[in-house]
């Protein structure tokens, strides 16, 4: 029982990352009709926002400490972050400690800008082009983005820990009457889940309750008609692209403490996020979110030892098995609309 | 002869001549010159050019003609390689049974995958193929290790049964005694040219595969495949069952992939699971789109383009750059090298990514269409052409 | 890339080639009668450095490349000579190898067997490399080693830790300086017993591919031998980026030690996840919960950040050792590049020197001669103490370092501290040990 | 003799009774029009006939054989061809190639792996296709990209493609919808000519009364999913029920 509860938590947590990425992907696809293979790269850039903020905050000046030696036997160069000298070591260190939450604020304008540049500079030329061309150009862009990141940050993962206050884990088991340690879950992952829920809710609310959102939703359903109404839908779509990029970036920035960011993390998520979107049904926002959580949960359950004993290797392929079963049972995924991306 | 139209015959002859003379054509620079770095005329890379050419030609029969975008074709190539290596392990190092089995097994596997995937179309089809292929890769890497030798890759060991192996049989892959790796080197002045048995076997098979693909393109079946791409609704209401057409194209292209896999293993008897990964499937998609999907020659061009970058640009390192630009004043030299090192050596991915973007943005239709456009412009400059505007045949 | 000789290519002649009917003048040069593949004819000899430049191990590959460049510089008489000065064999004079200036070509393995073999092949076929070296994973090492055996060149393995490289997949033309999974386990187990006691219950998470399995098999056997109980062995998919669902059940399984048989990105993530779950701070069975990472590397430790603190593992070499060889190497590497070398850099530097030395001693680049010179070769002064290149399987036997994540690092490189240097005798096994059984070295292949 | 017999067809979509006990007989070698206001169930009926929809109850017999449960391509092979409201042609292919495809379908059936012989060797097919293009007055456009033609030409090509299969029953779904007057008249003339030259039954669904009364020999009026009357054009014109159904809204 406790094991199952644990995997439910895991499923929610994994699912929230999948859902966030898939949500952005679907927004772009639904509004612009563009298959964006660079979406994983946006997620990765988000995570590197956290890395960058951490580096900026710990920007240091160098003093020579004659009492110590470095690995070559020369006097040790000691780096002291400017923040620590400005605000005192305690406050300075805690500001650096909070770099990931600070990066969230920093990330939103950056991602909006990245999204804007991408859409205006490149993607808009591909609205009328075949999906294959869109795939090729966005895939090329994804490679370029990740190679640039690799060039400046290296290929190794870069640790970006969560603030001290969010470290460690929370014992649910005790609350529910289990033994201590039966159901523990890391605090930051719970924060991630809550944060995702808020973002997803915000995106839905934005589309549901604002005029802007209504127009975009109408445009997703029937672009031409909305265009005929004399509404400048293109401008709104540009903004939507920025929002989708921001959602991916936020998913990335919050993910940084969970797994140290590296330059290829976007590609690792790319295939998976497409599977999520398609299982959810092309063009369906609720479908993407639902599929994200569903696949996250199933992936977690399949990694339980009891399940693996029964079906060896099932955790390797569960996502794909589920995708195949759902697509065969439901032609357009869970909630897909007819005629979207079926040609 | 060959039962083909004149322009197709011309194309086939060009390809055959190019394949024959590739050892010269790909080694244009003297071995000692600084440009020798760009020579691609060594057996392994030439073999890769033609083998991946076969893979892409086959993929184009599916994607270029029917429009079904498979993201799982590398699985068939991988299965072909595994079958071939198993033949080496069980029978002997002769490549004939290996290639034969690889085509058969890949055909059967693609029949199963195609049968399942073709129940859906569009991106749903793509994801189904992707899922099935990625499953194959992951299982091959882990649970199926007894069959695939997992991470290490399937290879031939001296204690394998090899029941047809005589005491004098070659221990390397061969065609009835003709070893794949044997080669002649021809040195003329500063130039050096390699002629390898393995390359010529692959090249002959590639030319044959290309010939077959021309025949398919020009056949009623090829017309039906293009009709599938154009309008399935009309197909159905014209009394034509689209499913078996698409499935046949899928299986044929799967067999091409198996052939390529079998040949890869024949040139180098090791089959690694990465051959089946989605990135490998993506690579053949990129080759085809980059060269020009639906054109006869495009896939070969695209395959050559990507393999060239992978093998030539990745080997240009800093010391090579320093040698090239050593004549510049130091500051300038370092500046130039600082810029260039982003794009070569470990930066070759960046170059490839940029080229993808540039080509697809400025040459929609791929390299072949780009070439055609340039050719047309040159011709138009010469004299006004008599090309009637409607005289365009779609699948050239 | 300009190279001085024209006909480096070993021409593999069978005489059976009769296909093209060339009527061109065929000018065959001396190399067609050479005794082995890519025999150098001019004043230079070409080595092939085949390392991952793209993909997750690119940083490790870059560090290897730095070490190779340094080794070439030293061999050609440049720089301060590095470990050439401390090496027990004194035949290297800084005038290249056998009087041939050392040149090199580089390639990208992409950490894929196929790409690695393609890259190595191009070095052999196009650039005339007489030796291939490098790699940062066992699958690649084994694939390239097999190819070098067929092509008739020497393969000096880089970072490869699987038992199979010198076990069931060993080859006469292949040599490994790096240690292996068995040695890691043999070195770790006594230290684990000493620090954590004999009454422990271990839970294994293992990357689901060949290296992971040999690592798991080795460490489980070694820890069981000191009295530990193995509670569970769980395979994790290679492509995993998030290990939470594998780590979540650990605490409740009754185990009090978690062994992470992961490497690279897998290890960084699984360790980070384990620490997130608070495993390091928990008490189970009345004991502190412990995490063990059998194969450590400093680059990985850097990726995992503060999470490595206090966590035990093993490594082939570490820059903080205080022997003369290590000091010389760290000095020349650090002076050139500004940071200390990684264990990957160290092993490939050693391999290059060992190859050059063997060629000098054998008086030839013929792989068979080099093989003979390396087999049973005993040396010292390369940072690992007295070392033996065993003839039976071409594996180096030397001391193994047990290391721990440092609690208070003084710099960004100072992440690990050496807990114990396990002497070579303790990690030596018989050549026919069951974990290494199944393969044969075969005969050395000189190619032509 | 009836070539098409539709008996007691019912089809519900959720709460909507799209077809309510429809009976319809089409006599061989006549032009039979099905008319009715929007939402009368005309398209649903058509989709039942061609196999796209399966009715809840009832039977559809074509030349004595049931068509129900068969796939569209099978029904087409039985001899029913369909012309769509917006012309469905192979836009990426040349006009001649468009015309060859139904010829192949007629000769080789629903699937034939004819992958080796070149098309240029299929003299019978080419001849037939060329002949049909001439019949349609499109021979000069044979090398044109089909998608580049005018809507009228596309319609003409589509009808030609259907005819080249020599169907026994030709179904037309509002063939002049969205057409200019001149194009509409051309299409009427074309259909008249077809009727004169061939032994063919035509069933036509149409909105435009001008087209209907120019062509039809029998007319069925459909309203709210059920046939109101079936009669000759002359009788239909003055029929009060039809007026009610059609003009009801304005008459009130």
Notes on the structure:
- The complex is a heterotetramer of chains A (343), B (396), C (448) and D (252).
- Helix content of chain A is 69%, strand content 7%.
- Chain A is mainly α.
- Chain A has one domain: ABC transporter involved in vitamin B12 uptake, BtuC (Orthogonal Bundle).
- A two-stranded antiparallel ribbon of chain A has the order 1-2.
- Chain B contains 16 helices and 6 strands.
- In chain B, the strands form 3 sheets. In chain B, strands 1-6 form a two-stranded antiparallel ribbon.
- In chain B, a hairpin with a 2-residue loop joins strand 2 and strand 3.
- Chain B starts with 5 loop residues before the first helix and ends in a 14-residue tail after the last helix.
- With 448 residues, chain C is α/β, with parallel strands linked by helices.
- Chain C is built from 12 helices and 17 strands.
- In chain C, the strands form 4 sheets. In chain C, strands 7-6-8-11-12-16-17 form a 7-stranded mixed β-sheet, sandwiched between helices. In chain C, strands 2-1-3-4-5 form a 5-stranded parallel β-sheet, sandwiched between helices.
- In chain C, helix 1 packs parallel to helix 10.
- The radius of gyration of chain C is 22 Å and the shape is globular.
- The relative contact order of chain C is 0.15.
- The N terminus of chain C is likely disordered.
- Classes of the chains: A mainly alpha (343), B mainly alpha (396), C alpha/beta (448), D alpha/beta (252).
- At the B-C interface, helix 2, strand 3, strand 4, strand 5 and helix 13 of B face helix 1, strand 2, helix 2 and helix 3 of C.
Task: Please describe the topology of this protein.
The complex is a heterotetramer of chains A (343), B (396), C (448) and D (252).
Chain A: H1 2-32, H2 39-57, E1 60-69, E2 75-81, H3 82-97, H4 99-121, H5 131-153, E3 169-171, H6 172-175, E4 184-186, H7 187-209, H8 211-221, H9 223-228, H10 233-255, H11 265-280, H12 285-302, H13 305-310, H14 314-329
Antiparallel strand pairs in A: 1-2, 3-4
Helix pairs in contact in A: 1-7, 1-10, 1-11, 1-12, 2-4, 2-5, 2-10, 2-11, 4-10, 7-8, 7-10, 8-10, 11-12, 11-14, 12-14
Chain B: H1 6-25, H2 43-66, H3 74-90, H4 95-117, H5 122-141, H6 145-148, E1 154-155, E2 174-175, E3 178-179, E4 183-188, E5 191-196, H7 197-218, H8 220-230, H9 232-236, H10 242-267, E6 270-271, H11 278-291, H12 298-312, H13 318-324, H14 330-340, H15 348-362, H16 366-382
Antiparallel strand pairs in B: 1-6, 2-3, 4-5
Helix pairs in contact in B: 1-7, 2-7, 2-8, 2-10, 2-11, 2-12, 3-4, 3-10, 4-5, 4-10, 7-8, 7-10, 8-10, 11-12, 11-16
Chain D: E1 2-13, E2 16-27, E3 31-35, H1 42-49, E4 57-62, E5 65-66, H2 72-78, E6 80-83, H3 95-108, H4 123-135, H5 151-163, E7 169-173, H6 181-197, E8 201-205, H7 209-215, E9 218-223, E10 226-231, H8 233-238, H9 240-251
Parallel strand pairs in D: 3-8, 3-9, 6-7, 7-8
Antiparallel strand pairs in D: 1-2, 1-4, 4-5, 9-10
Helix pairs in contact in D: 3-4, 3-5
């Amino acid at each position: 029982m406790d094991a199952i509860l644990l995997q439910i938590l895991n499923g929610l947590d994994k699912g929230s990352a999948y859902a966030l990425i898939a949500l952005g992907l679907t927004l772009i696809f639904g509004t612009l009709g563009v298959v964006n293979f660079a979406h994983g790269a946006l997620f990765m850039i988000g995570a590197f926002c956290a890395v960058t903020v951490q580096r900026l905050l710990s920007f240091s000046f160098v003093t020579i400490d004659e009492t110590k030696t470095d690995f070559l036997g020369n006097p040790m160069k000691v780096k002291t972050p400017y923040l620590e000298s400005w605000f005192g070591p305690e406050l300075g260190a805690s500001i650096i400690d909070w770099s990931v939450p600070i990066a969230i604020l920093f990330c939103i304008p950056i991602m909006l800008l990245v999204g804007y540049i991408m859409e205006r500079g490149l993607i808009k030329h591909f609205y009328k082009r075949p999906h294959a061309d869109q795939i090729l150009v966005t895939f090329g862009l994804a490679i370029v983005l990740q190679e640039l990141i690799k060039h400046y940050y290296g290929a190794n993962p870069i640790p970006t820990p969560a603030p001290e206050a969010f470290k460690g884990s929370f014992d649910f088991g005790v609350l529910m009457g289990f033994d201590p340690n039966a159901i523990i879950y890391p605090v930051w992952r719970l924060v991630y889940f809550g944060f995702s829920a808020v973002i997803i809710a915000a995106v839905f609310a934005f589309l549901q309750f604002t005029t802007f959102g209504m127009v975009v939703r109408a445009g997703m359903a029937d672009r031409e008609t909305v265009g005929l109404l004399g509404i400048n839908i293109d401008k709104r779509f540009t903004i939507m692209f920025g929002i989708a990029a921001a959602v991916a970036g936020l998913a990335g920035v919050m993910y940084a403490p969970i797994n140290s960011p590296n330059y290829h993390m976007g590609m690792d998520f790319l295939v998976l996020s497409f599977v999520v979107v398609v299982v959810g049904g092309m063009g369906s926002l609720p479908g993407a979110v639902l599929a994200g959580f569903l696949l996250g949960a199933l992936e977690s359950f399949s990694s339980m030892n009891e399940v693996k004993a029964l079906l060896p290797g099932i955790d390797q392929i569960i996502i794909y098995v589920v995708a195949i079963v759902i697509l065969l049972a439901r032609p357009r995924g869970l909630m897909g609309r007819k005629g979207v991306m079926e040609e | 002869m060959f039962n083909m139209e004149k322009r197709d015959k011309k194309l086939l002859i060009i390809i055959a001549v190019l394949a024959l003379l590739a050892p010269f054509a790909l080694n244009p620079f003297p071995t000692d010159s600084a440009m020798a770095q760009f020579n691609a005329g060594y057996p392994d890379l030439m073999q890769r050019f033609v083998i991946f050419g076969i893979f892409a030609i086959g993929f184009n029969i599916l994607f270029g003609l029917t429009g079904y975008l498979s993201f799982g074709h590398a699985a068939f190539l991988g299965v072909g390689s595994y079958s071939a290596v198993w033949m080496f392990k069980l029978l002997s190092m002769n490549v004939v049974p290996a290639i034969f089995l690889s085509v058969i097994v890949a055909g059967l596997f693609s029949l199963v995958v195609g049968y399942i995937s073709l129940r859906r179309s569009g991106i749903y089809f793509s994801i189904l193929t992707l899922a099935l292929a990625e499953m194959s890769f992951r299982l091959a890497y882990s649970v199926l290790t007894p069959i695939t030798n997992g991470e290490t890759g399937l290879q031939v060991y001296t204690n394998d049964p090899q029941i047809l192996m005589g005491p004098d049989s070659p221990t390397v892959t061969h065609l009835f005694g003709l070893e794949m790796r044997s080669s002649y080197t021809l040195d003329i002045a500063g130039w050096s040219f390699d002629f390898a048995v393995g390359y010529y076997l692959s090249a002959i098979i590639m030319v044959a595969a290309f010939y077959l693909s021309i025949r398919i393109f020009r056949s009623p079946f090829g017309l039906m495949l293009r009709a599938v791409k154009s309008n399935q609704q009309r197909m159905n209401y014209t009394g034509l069952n689209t499913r078996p057409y698409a499935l046949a194209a899928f299986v044929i292209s799967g067999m091409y992939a198996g052939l390529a896999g079998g040949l890869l293993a024949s040139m180098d008897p090791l089959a690694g699971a990465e051959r089946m990964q989605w990135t490998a499937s993506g690579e053949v998609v990129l080759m085809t789109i980059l060269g020009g999907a639906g054109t006869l020659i495009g896939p070969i061009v695209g395959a050559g383009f990507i393999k060239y970058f992978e093998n030539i640009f990745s080997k240009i390192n800093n010391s090579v750059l320093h040698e090239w630009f050593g004549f510049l004043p130091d500051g300038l030299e370092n500046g130039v090298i600082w810029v260039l090192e982003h794009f070569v050596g470990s930066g070759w991915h960046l170059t490839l990514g940029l080229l993808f973007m540039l080509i697809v943005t400025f040459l929609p239709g791929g390299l072949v269409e780009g070439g055609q456009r340039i050719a047309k412009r040159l011709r138009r400059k010469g004299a006004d052409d008599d090309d009637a505007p409607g005289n365009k045949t779609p699948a050239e | 890339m300009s190279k001085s000789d024209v006909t480096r290519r070993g021409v593999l002649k069978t005489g059976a080639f009769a296909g093209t009917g060339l009527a061109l003048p065929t000018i065959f040069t001396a190399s067609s009668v050479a005794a082995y593949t890519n025999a150098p004819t001019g004043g230079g000899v070409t080595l092939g450095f085949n390392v991952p430049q793209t993909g997750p191990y690119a940083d490790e590959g870059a560090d290897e490349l730095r070490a190779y460049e340094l080794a070439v510089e030293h061999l050609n008489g440049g720089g301060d000579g590095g470990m050439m000065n401390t090496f027990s064999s004194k035949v290297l004079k800084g005038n290249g190898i056998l009087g041939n200036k050392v040149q090199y070509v580089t390639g990208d393995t992409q950490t894929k067997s196929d790409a690695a073999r393609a890259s190595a092949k191009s070095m052999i076929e196009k650039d005339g490399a007489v030796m291939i070296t490098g790699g940062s994973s066992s699958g690649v090492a084994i694939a390239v080693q097999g190819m070098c055996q067929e092509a008739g060149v020497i393969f000096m393995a880089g970072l490869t830790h699987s038992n199979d490289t010198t076990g069931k997949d060993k080859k006469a033309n292949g040599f490994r300086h790096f240690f292996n999974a068995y040695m890691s386990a043999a070195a770790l187990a006594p230290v684990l017993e000493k620090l954590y006691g004999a009454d422990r219950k271990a839970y294994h998470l293992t990357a689901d591919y060949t290296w992971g399995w040999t690592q798991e098999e080795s460490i489980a056997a070694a820890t069981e031998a000191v009295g530990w109980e193995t509670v569970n062995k769980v395979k994790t998919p290679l492509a995993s980026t998030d290990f939470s669902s594998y780590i979540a059940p650990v605490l409740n399984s009754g185990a009090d030690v978690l062994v992470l048989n992961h490497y690279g990105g897998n290890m960084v993530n699984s360790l980070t996840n384990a620490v997130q779950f608070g495993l390091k701070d928990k008490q189970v069975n009345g004991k502190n919960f412990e995490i063990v990472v059998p194969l450590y590397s400093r680059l990985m430790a850097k990726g995992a950040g503060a999470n490595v603190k206090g966590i035990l593992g093993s490594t082939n070499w570490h820059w903080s050792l205080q022997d003369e060889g290590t000091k010389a190497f760290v000095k020349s590497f650090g002076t050139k590049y500004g940071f200390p070398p990684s264990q990957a850099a160290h092993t490939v530097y050693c391999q290059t020197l060992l190859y050059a030395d063997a060629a000098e001693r054998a008086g030839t680049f013929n792989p068979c001669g080099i093989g003979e010179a390396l087999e049973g070769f005993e040396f010292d002064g390369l940072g690992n103490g007295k070392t033996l290149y065993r003839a039976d399987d071409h594996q180096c036997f030397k001391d193994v370092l047990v290391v721990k994540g440092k609690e208070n690092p003084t710099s960004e490189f100072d992440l690990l501290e050496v807990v114990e240097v396990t002497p070579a005798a303790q990690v030596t096994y018989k050549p026919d040990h069951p974990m290494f059984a199944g393969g044969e070295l075969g005969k050395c292949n000189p190619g032509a | 003799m009836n070539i098409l017999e539709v008996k007691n067809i019912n089809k519900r979509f959720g709460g909507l009774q799209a077809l309510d006990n429809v009976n319809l007989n089409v006599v061989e070698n006549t032009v039979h029009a099905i008319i009715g206001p929007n939402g009368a169930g005309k398209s649903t009926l058509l989709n039942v006939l061609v196999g796209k929809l399966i009715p809840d109850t009832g039977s559809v017999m074509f030349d004595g054989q049931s068509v129900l449960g068969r796939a569209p391509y099978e029904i087409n092979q039985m001899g029913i061809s369909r012309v769509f409201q917006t012309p469905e042609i192979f836009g990426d292919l040349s006009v001649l190639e468009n015309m060859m495809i139904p010829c192949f379908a007629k000769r080789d059936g629903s699937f034939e792996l004819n992958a080796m012989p070149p098309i240029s060797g299929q003299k019978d097919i080419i001849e037939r296709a060329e002949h049909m293009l001439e019949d349609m007055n499109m021979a000069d456009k044979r090398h044109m990209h089909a998608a580049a033609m005018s809507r009228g030409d596309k319609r003409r090509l589509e009808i030609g493609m259907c005819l080249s299969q020599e169907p026994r029953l030709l179904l037309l779904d509002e063939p002049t919808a969205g057409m200019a007057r001149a194009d509409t008249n051309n299409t009427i003339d074309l259909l008249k000519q077809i009727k004169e030259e061939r032994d063919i039954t035509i069933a036509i669904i149409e909105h435009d009364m001008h087209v209907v009364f120019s062509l039809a020999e029998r007319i069925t009026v459909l309203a709210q999913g059920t046939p109101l009357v079936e009669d000759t054009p002359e009788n239909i014109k003055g029929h009060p029920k039809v007026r009610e159904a059609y003009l009801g809204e304005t008459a009130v």
